Amino acid sequence: MNKRDKEEKDIRIKSLEEEKLIVEIKNLKQIWRHPSFWPPLFTFLLVLTATIYSWKSGIFEIKSEKLELETAKLELKKDTLNSQIEELNSKYFQLINRYESVKYENDSIKKVMEKWVKTKQSKSDLYMLISVKEEEV
């Protein structure tokens, strides 16, 4: 190879490199022609379309209404349970009072019975003692 061939080859290489740079710059200006441009764009458009469709069809409103309905049901259940708790507490205190009353009556009857047993009185005296104790109560 002589010097002239080498120079021609270098000139061709430089010219090819320049053409390549020009084509690359042109491709950068027209990015939509590049294959890697389209998949992300389609993905974005698909998500955007699905969101708009969902919004217009009322899916988000339906979900919020379901949440509101569920909240209302839970509040109603809470109120019902609270009223049941109050009712049960009231019954509990009534039973406690009744228990104390019966216990007091029972203690009184025990005392009368013990007194009757100690004194060895007749049954009629026992009935009389019980009736007197009931009047005291």
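The above is record 1. Record 2 follows with the same two-line structure.
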Amino acid sequence: MVFDDNRKATVLNEYFSSVFTQDNGIIDPARLPKKLGCDMASLYLSPVMVQKYIQEAQLSLRDRATRACQLKSGKVLHKCRRLVFEKL
């Protein structure tokens, strides 16, 4: 178990960077596009904000699942209705 924040960051970074391609020196750096030199804007998140967005995402997933079930049941009912009336 890792409890130190710096060590946690290091472990996470090592894990993610393990999938990157290591530079083997074949590509000429002069052919690479120039860096823009832009700074990333600051991003501020609070636990309350994160919780809010997670809850919204969960609601969105439930809504989509409900709509999918409604569409599927509507198609089944339509097919049953068609079969019944075709037999008459």
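The chain is about 60% helix and 0% strand.
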